[in-house]
Amino acid sequence: MSDNSAPAMDYEAHERTYEGFINFSKIGTVAVLNVMLCLILFAFGGAAATVFGWIMLVATLIATAIGMALGEKGWVPSAVVFGLTVVIVVLTV
């Protein structure tokens, strides 16, 4: 027998969770792409590319942490680091 006493869904909490998931997905995708570029620097570059690879890997970690704190526009710091890494890959590999 059903008594229909279940509480109503909390849509505000649902929306916050969904936005957080989407934000994490954006930041995570850009961070993974940046790590891939750093691996390219390590594998195919010389000594300078290896140094730049480590620098950009640390910058990726910092940008990811800042992006998680920013919220909706959190993908921007990771995207800036990604753009710099692309330039470095083009110039050193």
Protein described:
- The protein is an all-alpha fold.
- Helix content is 82%, strand content 0%.
- The chain has three helices and no strands.
- It has helices at 11-44, 47-70, 75-92.
The whole-angstrom Rg is: 19 Å
Question: What is the helix/strand order?
Answer: HHH
Strand content: under 5%
How would a crystallographer describe the biggest sheet?
A: none
Q: Helical amount among residues, as a percent range?
A: over 70%
* Average pLDDT score: 91
- Cα shape: rod-shaped
Structural class: mainly alpha
Distance between the termini: 69 Å
Number of strands: 0
Number of helical segments with 4 or more residues: 3
Q: Oligomeric form of this entry?
A: single chain
- Low-pLDDT runs: none
